[in-house]
Amino acid sequence: MSQHDGNLEPILDVNDIQGNILAGFNKDHQTLLGFTIDNIDKAREYMQIITKEISTLYEVFSFNKAYKSRKQRLGKEPFGMISTWVNIAFSYGGMKKMVKNIAEIEHYLDQPFKNGLTFSSQGLGDPVGEQSEGNLHNWIIGSPRSIPDILLIIASDMLDVLKAKSNDIIETAKENGITNFYHETGHDLSYFNEEKRGQEHFGFKDGVSQPGVRGKFSNNPTDYLTSRPSTQPSDSNLPELSYTGRPLIAPGEFVIGYPTQNLNNSRAADPADPSIPKILLNGSYLVYRRLKQDVPAFEKFVDIGYHQLSSIQEFSEMTPEKFKSLIVGRWPSGAPLSLSPERDNPRLGKDSYKNNAFAYSDDLNGFKTPVISHIRKVNPRDQATDLGGPSRTLKKRILRRGIPYGVPFEKSKPDSMNCDRGLLFLSYQASIENQFEFLSKNWMNRSDKPTNAPSPNNYDSGYDMLIGQNGSGGRKRFGTFQINRNSNVIEGQVKTDGLNILDWVIPTGGGYFFSPSIKSLKSFFVEH
Amino acid sequence: MSNTSHFKTPADIRDFDQNSHLANEWNDLLSGYFTKSISDFPPLFFDPRSPPVGQITTSHITWGGFPNILNALDTDKEEAYKKADKLALFDGNFNDLEQKSPQFFSDPNGHNTLPEKYRQQDEYLEWAVHIDDNSGKIKEIFFTCEGPEYWDVLSQDQNLLLQLYKQYASPNVVLSDLLFLDDVYQKDENTNMIKKVFQSGDYNPYNKWNLSAAIHLIHPSNTLGAEITLAAQGSQLYGTTGNILSDPGTLICCAAYGEPNRNSDPTIGSIANTQARAGNWVSLRDPVGLYISGIDDSQFQKPDGSNISDFDNRYWTILRASSDNSLILRAKLSVPEGEMVDGRQMLLGDLLVNGRPLKYGAQVAEAITMGLFVITVPNGPHADINPCHFKCCSDTDHPSYEFIVDSNRNCPQAHPFARILRMNSLSRVHT
Asked: Would you tell me which residues 244-303 of chain B have a C-beta closer than 8 angstroms to some C-beta of chain A?
């Protein structure tokens, strides 16, 4: 063990950190509100009012814990146990309006945050065709003309309460020189169909794998934010795990000002940079991407890809559902292919204590979980990558807090074909550049990273075929799939070359934001 | 297994087409490396010219070209970029990567330190930055990943050496620029004995033209020999019966087959080891070499923030590579002639890298992916398990910086940097 263990579990400032960052609102309904600050003086006064509304880590965590406990006792969702949460974040433009002397902290601000998502869009591989709805100039929110100064996230178990709360905030803000111009509500798909609880629109259970965050609520030695078993993997270089098999990661990777993961030792932390300015402490960067999901296009791609692959004799037993699951790395239920390679296992999918208990180093070829599957691209787990050992992958993780928007697609209802539906993707991280953008640009959008499978045909493994992009390569993508036959590797590639459909996940809005601490809001955002 | 063919040159480059002696010399050098590695690290490592029977699969292993050591040492990225671009002296002191440099002397008594320098870039990618005299901005950057041994062999034909330097560095190169004019001595770190490492008239890998044009690798750790040894050592099993090590970080500390702080070494060793644990034969694909796999154009923008169209073809020039350009040895980044900004020729220094002004070659190196190719064949013989003779310690001031010590030693508490750069593979004289 390292001499730096002491930094691994700092006491978190639970009344200062906004609640959605580390605890997650985890509500069935979530509204995003975008505002422009018209009157800075009034807006600063308003910050004193809105700050009281902001839900803290302590509040959200405590509620979630109580809810879970009650659910366990009842064996079903506890009726009537509701809460409504509010969190706030600012774009760089918003911060410049609100914070005096921002030039003094410029050096410490994340570069993509300062540039904004519009600057990064093309680098992220977004479509650039003038007519494309994915072109940033056509975005619904966050285009150069519609970047919010403030983004509010409001979440509740009850839609009526959420609406009332949102309307109340919009009204009060308006009286204080802050104009709402964007209002969008996402729902867990169980709102439309209980069987779709926790799913995204392509039909897969979402949010199964989240990192476990280290840190404690108090001096009590076991008062952890993320509980964990008493025994851990014996190799002290392997990460410690939570009860649910999720690796425990130093909080500084998500909240600024705390120790960060050591590059080489999964169970050690590096001290936080002491020079970080106060305004950033206990804050986190928020990425919002409004990702439209074109379900018919995806299904069509699945059909084409499945045919491309099954035309190879050794892949002839492939089914569309299997192919779709190979693209994701999990079956629709959330059951990992790694643990259930042949067929879906809904019981495993539901079992949060087991559905993350797997690794890839025994499956270098990706016979079970293709190297290009989405979950393996963004989280290569125990594998060495282009960065070195897997301890360095832990520094690339993000906390996802997204929620679907739009009604689910139903084949039997032709009207449903053209509806706008997708994911309000939200993620928190300490660095947009090193985490969200790294994952997108360096891993999902590249055909040769983070790893390549050993190939009999000298193929690179390919792109993340679920949401990866290839902006400069004519949007063409490919994925390599392998099976083992009598100790021989048989390989097939699925390519989008020549297809009419190239995009099934289309960015239609978003932005880069900073989610400050409560103390920061009270001081730096209200000062005249 | 019998060796039936010659080893190809890196990227199958055709410099030796007119000189079979050099082709033989190159083959002999690589044969020697492989023979030694196969003997030193049995039983799964094999000679790629005569693979075992079975399906051959190739793993394209990739890593980032910016020295990860600087990520471990510096939280300030700008400082890290600055350091990566600087040259270091062979003066026996610690360089900016906290590696102890060898010291070169011009006399056999260890006096008169020579002014030779090397690049502090140790991910098998090195670069040289050219500045525009008028504006002080970066004009072009040359990148190389050619192993020094190749140029050492090539230097036996001084006409060819001069011809290639004139072609790739400058028409002004003269032969004497490329040679040591005196004998060169170095102190052995273990014995403190002074030994001759180059003779007067030997090729000087650290010559000024290589420094300015990045003709081939010169950081002491960046050698093809190191690559081959790493793959061979990685193909052995480590740990104990019932607990064979698999974690890439644990393995490199146990086996000491490379530099744990690099992007490259832990991954190369780990991929070889994963194959060995699966019972497969392991080797490197012929042509054995280190290659630039590509540059990520998504990270570059024009001064106004707009993206650059056709970056790969217009800004990125491949200078030495295989005939199909898939195996790149040397390349240049520059702005094409006629690309204008503010009514003048645009320069590299006008571009943005992820929104920041391009001020250092290291920023570009960060966007470059490196690669090599490990090959495997199934059904290798039984391999014994080797105990760990080494372990890693982390530095007290920079906890993400690791160094390797003997497994029976305690981790030192004070200034424990213990990386001494070895450079025997670059020496022409072994005494």
From this structure: 245-250, 252-253, 260-267, 270-271, 274-275, 278, 293-294, 296-299, 301
